[in-house]
Amino acid sequence: MYGTEIAKRRAEGPDPGTIYPTLESLEGRGQIQAYQLEATKVYWLAPKGRSGLAEAKRFVVQAYGDIAREAD
């Protein structure tokens, strides 16, 4: 996806002025990769980003899983 597409997919998300610096930071840390497609830069998760996402999911489930189970 590209930055504006990410912003459009977020119903109440940050504007592209916030997203692009974040994307640059994530790319600099090796968590996402990008390539230029004509006038658009396309992003996807790098292996390091996938493992970071999996770790974050485990943390959220561990920290907040009880709340979700109580809502059922």
Short description:
This protein has 72 residues and is α+β, with helices and mostly antiparallel strands. It is 62% helix and 17% strand.
Across the major sheet, the strand order is: 1-2
Share of β-strand residues: 15-25%
Going by CATH, what is the homologous superfamily?
A: Winged helix-like DNA-binding domain superfamily/Winged helix DNA-binding domain
What is the share of helical residues?
55-70%
Broad structural category: alpha+beta
Shape: globular
> Distance between the terminal alpha carbons, to the nearest Å?
34 Å
CATH C-level class is Mainly Alpha
CATH topology: Arc Repressor Mutant, subunit A
Count of spatially separate domains: 1
Sketch the major β-sheet: 2 strands, antiparallel
Number of helices: 3
User: What is the CA-atom radius of gyration, in angstroms?
Assistant: 15 Å
What does this structure look like?
This protein has about 70 residues and is of the alpha+beta class. It has one domain: Winged helix-like DNA-binding domain superfamily/Winged helix DNA-binding domain (Arc Repressor Mutant, subunit A, Orthogonal Bundle), CATH 1.10.10.10. Helices cover about 60% and strands about 15% of the residues. The chain is built from three helices and two strands, in the order ααββα. The chain has a two-stranded antiparallel sheet with strand order 1-2. A hairpin with a 2-residue loop joins strand 1 and strand 2. The termini are far apart. The mean pLDDT is about 85.
